[in-house]
Design a protein that fits this description.
The complex is a heterodimer. By secondary structure, chain A is α+β, with helices and mostly antiparallel strands. Chain A contains 9 helices and 33 strands. Classes of the chains: A alpha+beta, B alpha+beta. The interface between A and B is large, with 58 and 77 residues.
């Protein structure tokens, strides 16, 4: 389409070979035909680009959809400089309500912007809602006579019964002079309270028909056909459907949104009074009943053996809720075993503008059990006729047949007679819970999976740590220095509690000196304080920290050799100082001396 | 050295406790005296011909006691069969067989299942063809592979190889003098991973591949989950695969691949 439009666009090139005229400056102008609209309306936008530019960026149009576009263009070259005149026409449809903005159009030359339009704001609102009218009024086509184009929701009656399927068609009517080229559904009715099924597929051909309305000839196409069923008694509202209709021809096109008139349908309950004995819920429509009884050879039986199978076909035909029609009850009494058969495949149900119609075939197997002259079961079928608004019933009379042979038992007894019976129940059994391992999904199973894994991982980690420690005993000792120092400090505190002053200071002194030995391989026990200061300094301990340690060691020496003067308070303070010093020493990363 | 002995002692203790737990879980748990009496009462109802009452009583024991007893399923299946509920009978026999009972009980369940199926074959004129009652393609190759042996056997195989493999790997560190332990652990570990994968596959297929039995007489397989959707009738007793569902509707697949919806009350998971 775009190519066709472009082909239709006049391209005019004027070559001016001489003349001192200057090239025109670039400019852009955006015009809209309205600033306020509904989601049913179209917005026509004209973008005029002019002057010297080599590219342009289209505006952002969030919330809009481009329904159609066309453009016209002319190019001038003045003194070797190109100048364009371009008109871009857009037809936009709003997809939401609110204030929608058409952004700026930007013209550029050589990759640089040279002109920009102002953004345009448009108010978009929902179209005015129409209150639903009565079904009678909505169905009256004559009220629309004179309109060039309208959408009509149509259904055969003004009221239906719960469970009764009916058609709902949306027809687009237009006068012959209106050229309709497309009709897109933009809003489908919700049909609350109805079970609805769309019968038209996306590929279905739209057939144009004619009808005279109010003395005028109209053409119409069916755009949507639904088969609906009222789920409960009350009022069901048929909401409006919105169609965007494309009108015009290749050269001149337009679009228009049309809506059907909403209306109310009455859904009545199936009467509870006067229901026949054979009526089953869901049997609503206009039906007929027929039947046939055949033997295995496909002929009507006259004489049969007990145990011989006969096929009873019951056909319910007509229009209405065929899908929910229940199989008639067939009572074989004690003369016949009756078993319904699965679907025969002979059902034939059609859904169209006249609703649901066709036939359902129910099959039963009859097995004569008693010899003698027997009458096959009579089939009764009852339904509610919504047109006549009354219950109806029909019966298919059973056939007289002669049954020969021995009397037979019922279904399970037949199996037993054939030597196939279930084994007796098991008695004397003590009930038990499941004896199998109930492990799946239990925490015990996970424990049994994870425990050996954890054990193996633990073993592996321990082994690797030990192997690493065995490779470098000095480093291991270094790592153990802190732990050992805490242990010795603990011994000192125990001595303090026991009042053993000499032992306390001895442990305290060893705590500090051993720490140096283990951490930095400084043999502090055999060194004077000066030698300790010098060796520990070489290991990287700061001088002020070493000074504090040596002061504490001297305090210990003094207190050890003059213990009488040492009080509990002094010992606690000494222990606290030693602990604080250990903390500071831990923060140093020393070099281990050789 | 002392720590090592303690560690080995702790491991031994954990192993002993675990095995004791395993043994305890395998031991049959007793049921209440009331349940046992109800079972005897249900048997009495059965012999008096009160099959529906017997079936209700058996079913009550199942739901009250959360029992999974194959004999109880066998008797419940029998009572359902005698009451004419052949679909339910098939369901209970299948559930009983799923518990992998011993010889005589398994034999009884299997025989009864065959008889119930034959009654329905007879009803639906399928002759000797019972294929329509059995879901023929139980889950494809993965299902077949993971159901070659019972869950119990799989668990025992997996756990024993798993413990052995990791035990050998750990013993390699405890007893470095013993050569070849690491090499021996590798094939055992491969076996453990294999058994573990099969066990995982079994859990997966059991959770995703659920079979059910049609337990009602007149069931329509509909194209959608509503009573107005078109459909075909499916016979009572038919095995179906449960694909999806909620409290009202269940999506099932027949053995021939046809899918549809049935009312949830009409089909029960095995």
């Amino acid at each position: 389409m775009r190519r066709a439009l472009q082909a239709a666009t006049a391209l005019v090139v004027l070559l001016v070979l001489a003349g001192p005229a200057l090239a025109e400056a670039a400019g852009v102008q955006v015009e809209v035909d309205r600033r306020s609209m509904t989601t049913d309306d179209d917005l026509n936008v004209e973008i005029r680009l002019s002057g010297d530019f080599d590219d342009y960026a289209e505006p952002t149009m969030e919330g809009f959809e481009v329904a159609a576009r066309s453009q016209q263009q002319s190019i001038q070259i003045v003194n070797g400089r190109m100048s364009r005149q371009q008109v871009l026409s857009l037809r936009l449809v709003a997809r939401r309500t609110g204030t929608l903005t058409i952004g700026s159009v930007v013209l550029s030359r050589g990759g640089r912007p040279v002109a920009r339009s102002e953004p345009v704001q448009v108010q978009v609102r929902e179209p005015a809602t129409q209150p639903p009218v009565s079904a009678d009024r909505a169905q009256d086509l004559a009220r629309n006579a004179g309109l060039p184009l309208f959408l009509q929701a149509e259904t055969p009656r003004t009221h239906y019964y719960v469970g009764e399927p009916f058609s709902l068609a949306w027809n687009l009517y237009f006068q012959p002079q209106v050229q309709v080229t497309g009709a897109e559904i933009v809003n489908k009715p919700a049909l609350q309270g109805l079970l609805a099924e769309e019968l038209m597929g996306p590929d279905d051909q739209l057939r144009v028909r004619e009808k005279v309305i109010g003395g005028r000839t109209y053409r119409y196409v069916m755009r949507s056909l639904q088969l609906a069923t009222g789920l409960e008694a009350g009022t069901a509202t048929i909401d409006p459907m919105a169609l965007r209709v494309a009108v015009g021809d290749v050269f001149r096109r337009g679009a228009q949104t049309v809506r059907s008139t909403p209306f109310n349908l009455e859904i009545r309950p199936v009467p509870t009074e006067g229901r026949p004995k054979w009526f089953q819920e869901g049997n609503v429509g206009r039906f007929g009943l027929s039947g046939s009884l055949l033997d295995a050879a496909g002929t009507e039986p006259k004489t049969v053996q007990t145990g011989e199978r006969l096929i009873l076909d019951v056909t319910i035909s007509g229009s209405g809720a065929l899908l929910s029609v229940k199989a008639p009850e067939v009572d074989g009494g004690d003369a016949f075993d009756v078993q319904p058969l699965p679907a025969s495949g002979e059902d034939d149900i059609q859904k169209d503008v006249s609703g649901m119609h066709g036939k359902r075939v129910f099959q039963f197997i009859l097995v004569p059990r008693k010899p003698g002259k027997q009458k096959t079961p009579t089939v009764h079928f009852a339904w509610f006729d919504p047109t006549a608004e009354q219950f109806k019933e029909l019966a298919w009379e059973g056939r007289e047949i002669e049954v020969t042979g021995r009397a037979m038992a019922s279904e399970s007894q037949t199996a037993a007679l054939a030597g196939e019976d279930i084994e007796p129940i098991i008695e004397g059994h003590t009930l038990r819970r499941d004896e199998r391992l109930q492990l799946l999904g239990t925490p015990l199973l996970w424990a049994l999976i994870l425990l050996p894994l954890a054990g193996w991982l633990g073993t592996e980690i321990t082994w690797r740590l030990r192997a690493r420690a065995a490779k470098d005993p000095a480093k291991r000792r270094s790592r153990g220095a802190h732990k050992n120092a805490r242990m010795r400090l603990g011994l000192a505190r125990e001595a303090m509690k026991a009042g053993l002053v000499k032992d306390f200071y001895g442990h305290l002194s060893r705590t500090l000196t051993s720490y140096f030995e283990e951490r930095a391989n400084v043999p502090a026990m055999g060194l004077t304080h000066d030698e300790l200061r010098e060796a520990a300094g070489r290991a990287g301990y700061p001088a002020d920290l070493l000074e504090a340690v040596i002061v504490e060691l001297e305090n210990c020496d003094f207190a050890r050799f003059a213990p009488a003067g040492s009080a509990d308070a002094q010992m606690r303070e000494a222990a606290a100082r030693a602990q604080e010093l250990l903390g500071r020493l831990d923060r140093v990363e020393p070099r281990r001396l050789p | 050295m002392r720590v090592g002995r303690i560690g080995r002692g702790a491991c031994g203790l954990v192993l002993a406790v675990t095995l004791a737990g395993l043994a305890a879980s395998a031991e049959a748990q007793p049921v209440s005296a009331d349940a046992q009496k109800a079972f005897e009462d249900a048997n009495a109802h059965y012999y008096k011909g009160e099959y529906e009452l017997a079936a209700r009583t058996y079913a009550q024991i199942l739901s009250d006691e959360k029992l999974e007893d194959p004999v109880l399923y066998n008797n419940l299946g029998d009572a359902s069969f005698r009451a004419g509920a052949y679909g339910s009978a098939i369901l209970y026999y299948r559930r009983g067989l799923q518990l992998e009972p011993d010889g005589p009980v398994a034999q009884s369940l299997q025989n009864n299942l065959e008889v119930a199926r034959r009654v329905l074959q007879d009803r639906y004129r399928s002759g000797a063809d019972k294929s329509q009652f059995i879901y023929a393609e139980p889950g494809g190759l993965l299902y077949q592979l993971t159901h070659l042996v019972s869950v119990t056997t799989l668990i025992v195989l997996f756990l024993s190889t798993w413990w052995l493999a990791l035990g050998l790997a750990a013993l390699r560190r405890w007893r470095p003098g013993l050569r070849g332990l690491g090499a021996a652990a590798i094939p055992v570990l491969v076996l453990a991973v294999l058994f573990g994968s099969v066990l995982g596959g079994r859990v997966y297929t059991d959770n995703t591949f659920r079979l059910g039995v049609v337990v009602e007489d007149r069931v329509t397989l509909r194209e959608g989950p509503n009573v107005d959707a078109q459909g075909v009738d499916v016979p009572e007793g038919m095995e179906v695969r449960i694909v999806d569902g909620d409290a009202a509707w269940t999506k099932v697949e027949l053995s021939n691949g046809r899918r549809g919806w049935v009312e949830t009350s009409e089909v029960k998971q095995i």
